[in-house]
């Protein structure tokens, strides 16, 4: 007699086995996945609160570049619509306040300058609105939807020769060069008002000063903006907030007089007050600083410093619709969270926090916000915050993440030799056996005033997928731990930060996480600088990758864009030579370095020019230490060409594998 239950059971098991075989096995992330990763940016809420526009950049592998198109998602997250799809790219999408149009900036149809285009929300093709002859830095709709405030850069007449041979740069400014912008001649950015119906452009400001960050008053009569109108703006960061009536020939009024920086003005809904960010420090240079949320009357006067006691950097101030509270993003010990200040009593409330990172913030309705959120396993997506609870709106990265097996991420605290407590983040390859000692790479953040957070970190994920534990160290100089922690390295580079890196190394070795004989270190910008300082201090690292760094600091004066910082923090080289020489120890004591080191730089970097990497490469080459120099053609401080981004990670892995992984027989 047939055993029917047994046959059914066997059939079910066989079916389950077949099903299991069809489930694709997840794989480690690889440098090629750089081409698959999309990026969300610039979310904007419609006037009725029902839709959000955003930019979505994707890699065009044929052209080896990123291209941004515009998308729109409904507030309930159920509908997603692609608005543009052109090879020219679009950015800065903005809803008109009456809700009839979506505007954006694009250099379509062979244009050499970005122009503003209008798209009727009822449908149809976008139409070009402007025919600007100079660079558009920013634009803002007036409340009545009839005008636009434009921020335009003065024309570069020196580059208008009939031939392709550019006229010589004629430079007489104190600050004469900047990354991406290049050499800086005369020329400022000014405010204009553009009438949409008449296509008429009126000039609001002229002269040698820049005017930026315009925001319309709710009644449309005035613009608040930011300007540095000191005698020589190149020599300080003393920006103030001004207002001007929005018509030709109007005079401006200065509202703030703090000797530090005042910026990011935002009008209250009733137009009676202006919220803004004020620097904690006064004086000439504000590198080691954290912004404070301030509120003043629309006519100026003494401000209320709402976040002064918080001792954490705040940004993205946004008024709630009722004008009674102001939302902010707060950077705090490896997190960026959403907070809220009540105007009546100054009370601060955490709206939503956790081991994740919020960026962007827009008020929707009472208690509701639009934001962008990333966590260690997910690149940034758009979210609604409703009564303190995030609700995901976009799913851009689902396809990217689906086949990937990512590193585990956790935080830890280490103790430095001088007793400092340092907050760090550790990534370990997926499915790492317990108690297995791993080759470990310390990948150091730049800044120095920034912090590593519990957010998706592509570079560190790729390094970890290569079989490495990866450590991110929030060394002294980082923000998120209070102003004193940030200022601890003032005029003392390469000292406390190195102690903090070595303290984190001691921790992971002591805990059995890292193999002490297979430690590597690397980073970009100040992370590259700290790589150089660290390998000149300690020989425990068996491989290093220093990107966009410098060591002979004395030689960087007048070469990079930081002359103002140097003179205010270190003093002029001819007056304080000993200090400059002390901070140049990685180069001047290069014979202490035993670590094989690869140096990398962008060919056109004016932030930390390639000469800083070239000098160290030449020194190690002369000393017989294994070294390489990689120069990325046409690149500035940030590497933007997708194939170069992949190449950089490929080279990291090849270099670290060569020196940190045992040879297999």
TrEMBL record:
Residues 1-20 form the signal peptide. The keyword Transcription regulation does not apply. It comes from Spirosoma endbachense. GO terms for molecular function: serine-type endopeptidase activity. GO terms for biological process: proteolysis. This enzyme catalyzes the hydrolysis of the N-terminal peptide bond of an N-acetylated peptide to generate an N-acetylated amino acid and a peptide with a free N-terminus. It preferentially cleaves off Ac-Ala, Ac-Met and Ac-Ser. Also, involved in the degradation of oxidized and glycated proteins. InterPro entries: 6-blade_b-propeller_TolB-like (IPR011042), AB_hydrolase_fold (IPR029058), Pept_S9_AS (IPR002471), Peptidase_S9_cat (IPR001375), WD40 (IPR011659). This is Acyl-peptide hydrolase. It holds the Pfam family Peptidase_S9. PROSITE patterns: PRO_ENDOPEP_SER (PS00708), PROKAR_LIPOPROTEIN (PS51257). Keywords: Acetylation, Hydrolase, Protease, Serine protease, Signal. The keyword Protease applies. Residues 455-661 form the Peptidase S9 prolyl oligopeptidase catalytic domain.
């Amino acid at each position: 007699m047939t055993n029917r239950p047994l046959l059914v059971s066997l059939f079910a098991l066989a079916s389950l086995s077949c099903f299991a075989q069809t489930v694709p096995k997840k794989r480690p992330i690889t440098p090629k996945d750089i081409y698959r990763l999309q990026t969300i940016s610039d979310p904007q809420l419609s006037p009725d609160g029902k839709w959000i526009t955003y930019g979505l950049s994707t890699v065009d592998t044929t052209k080896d570049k990123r291209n941004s198109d515009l998308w729109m998602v409904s507030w309930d997250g159920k509908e997603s619509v692609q608005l543009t799809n052109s090879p020219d790219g679009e950015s800065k999408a903005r809803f008109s306040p009456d809700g009839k149009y979506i505007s954006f900036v694009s250099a379509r149809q062979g244009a050499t300058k970005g122009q503003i285009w209008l798209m009727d929300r009822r449908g149809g093709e976008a139409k070009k609105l402007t025919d600007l002859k100079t660079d558009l830095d920013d634009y803002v709709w007036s409340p009545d939807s009839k005008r636009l405030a434009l921020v335009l850069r003065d024309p570069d007449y020196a580059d208008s020769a009939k031939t392709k041979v550019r006229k010589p740069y004629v430079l007489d400014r104190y600050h004469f060069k900047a990354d991406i912008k290049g050499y800086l001649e005369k020329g400022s950015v000014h405010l204009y008002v553009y009438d949409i119906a008449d296509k008429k452009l009126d000039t609001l400001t002229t002269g040698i000063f820049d005017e930026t960050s315009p925001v319309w008053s709710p009644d449309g009569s005035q613009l608040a903006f930011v300007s540095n109108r000191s005698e020589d703006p190149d020599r300080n960061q003393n920006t103030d907030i001004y207002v001007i009536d929005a018509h030709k020939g109007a005079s401006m009024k200065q509202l703030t007089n703090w000797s530090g920086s005042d910026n990011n003005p935002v009008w209250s809904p009733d137009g009676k007050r202006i919220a803004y960010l004020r620097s904690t420090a006064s004086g000439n240079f504000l590198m080691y600083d954290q912004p404070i949320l301030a509120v003043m009357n629309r006519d100026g006067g003494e401000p209320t410093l709402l976040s002064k006691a918080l001792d954490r950097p705040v940004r993205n101030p946004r008024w709630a619709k009722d004008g009674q509270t102001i939302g902010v993003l707060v950077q705090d010990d490896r997190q960026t969270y959403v907070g809220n200040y009540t105007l009546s009593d100054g009370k601060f409330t955490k709206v939503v926090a956790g081991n994740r990172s919020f960026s962007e913030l827009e008020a929707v309705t009472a208690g509701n916000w639009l934001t962008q959120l990333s966590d260690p396993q997910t690149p940034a997506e758009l979210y609604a915050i409703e009564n303190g609870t995030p609700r995901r709106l976009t799913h851009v990265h689902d396809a990217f993440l689906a086949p990937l097996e990512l590193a585990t991420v956790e935080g830890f605290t280490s103790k430095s030799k001088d007793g400092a407590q340092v907050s760090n983040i550790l990534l370990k390859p997926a499915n790492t056996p317990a108690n297995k000692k791993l080759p470990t790479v310390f990948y150091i953040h730049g800044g120095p005033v920034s912090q590593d957070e519990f957010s998706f970190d592509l570079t560190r994920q790729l390094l970890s997928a290569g079989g490495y534990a990866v450590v991110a160290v929030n060394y002294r100089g980082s923000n998120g731990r209070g102003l004193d922690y940030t200022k601890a390295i003032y005029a003392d580079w390469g000292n406390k930060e190195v102690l903090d890196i070595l303290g984190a190394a001691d921790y992971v070795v002591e805990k059995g996480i890292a193999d002490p004989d297979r430690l590597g270190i690397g980073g970009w910008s100040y992370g590259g600088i700290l790589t150089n300082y660290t390998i000149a201090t300690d020989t425990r690292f068996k491989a290093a990758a220093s990107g966009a760094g410098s060591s002979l600091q004395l030689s960087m004066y007048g070469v990079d864009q930081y002359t103002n910082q140097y003179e205010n923090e270190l003093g002029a080289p001819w007056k304080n030579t000993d200090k400059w020489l002390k901070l140049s120890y990685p180069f001047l004591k290069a014979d202490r370095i035993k670590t094989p080191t690869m140096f990398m730089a962008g060919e056109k970097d004016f932030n930390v020019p390639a000469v800083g990497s070239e000098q160290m490469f030449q020194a190690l080459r002369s000393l017989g230490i294994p070294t390489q120099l990689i120069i990325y053609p046409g690149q500035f401080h940030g590497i933007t060409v997708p194939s170069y981004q992949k190449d950089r990670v490929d080279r990291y892995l090849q270099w670290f594998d060569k020196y940190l992984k045992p040879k297999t027989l």
